[in-house]
Every structure is written in C-alpha cells, then in structure tokens.
Amino acid sequence: MKKKAVWMIALVLLFTLAACGAAEDPQRNESGTEETGVSSSQASREESGRHVKMTIGSQEIQILLSDTPAADSLYEMLPLELEFSDYNQTEKIAYPPDELDTEGENFGVEPSVGDVCLYEPWGDVCIFYEDFSYSEDLVYLGKVESGMEALAAQNGDFAARIEPDEEQE
Known about the structure:
- By secondary structure, this protein is of the alpha+beta class.
- It has a single domain (42-164), classed as Cyclophilin (Beta Barrel).
- The chain has three helices and eleven strands; from the N terminus they run αββββαββββββαβ.
- The protein has helices spanning 2-20, 69-77, 148-152, and strands at 27-28, 34-35, 49-56, 59-66, 80-87, 91-94, 107-109, 115-119, 124-128, 135-146, 158-164.
- The radius of gyration is 21 Å and the shape is globular.
C-alpha cells in the first residue's frame, strides 16, 4: 500500500513539473503577428541606427538609436538639452519638447540595463540602469553602448546634452 502511495505522489509530481516546463503559447497582436514577449536584449532588436552622444558634465555616454519612427523623431530634435531625474531607482527619465512619432511602432518591451525607451502614456524618454519587467506602454528607441556606469551614478536631477555623434557616423 505504501509503495502504491509513493508511486502516485511521484507520478503527480512528474506531471506537475512537466506542465511547468511547457512552452508558453505566443500571443497575437493587433496586426495578427505573433508576440513572444522577448526582451530587448535579444536578437529581435535591429542593430542599425544612428549614433548619438549624451554629455553630462565632462562625461560622455554613447547611444545607438534604432531605425524606427519614434527614434527617428527623437534624432530629428537633436541637439537637445534635457533635464533628467531618477524614477523608481530603475531608470533616468526626461521629457523631450515634442511628442515622438509612434505610428507603426511595436509596443511592448522588457527593458534591460542600457535600453533607451519611450514611455508612451507620459511621453518621456527613459534610460534603464536596472532591468525591469515587461510593459506594453514602452517603445524601444535604442541602447547605451558605453558610459552606462556614468549615467547610473547620477544622483538627483541632472542636465544632459544629447546630439548626433559625428565621430561615429
């Protein structure tokens, strides 16, 4: 009798673990294409784009903007002086003077360290210095290529100049 009970428990555990390991079903977005909720650091992000530099005092941060409508509209505003502040001990945020074009954009990002995004409901540009959970309201704009530690070390509000990086183009 004990052997039978042990086998039943083992069988239940086996099925439970197998169910936990099953792959998630991809969801479909409004255009009918599959969404898998991939993080921005995966291969789904384009490697092409435009290089910009962000200057905070004497420190430079190199950023590669994606080749997307929202990133293009940010690039067209450059050069910019923006006032950044810390948000949620996760990201630095600033508000560009005009709204970014999000027509045709892919919404939804699971940001990782160095990701530059637009938080569409508020219209702010955010640069993540900590990983964060997936949000349908984020639009991927680009990635910090170097200088992330200088950005993360900023305490309180700070001014930054963002401009095309002529040396990288």
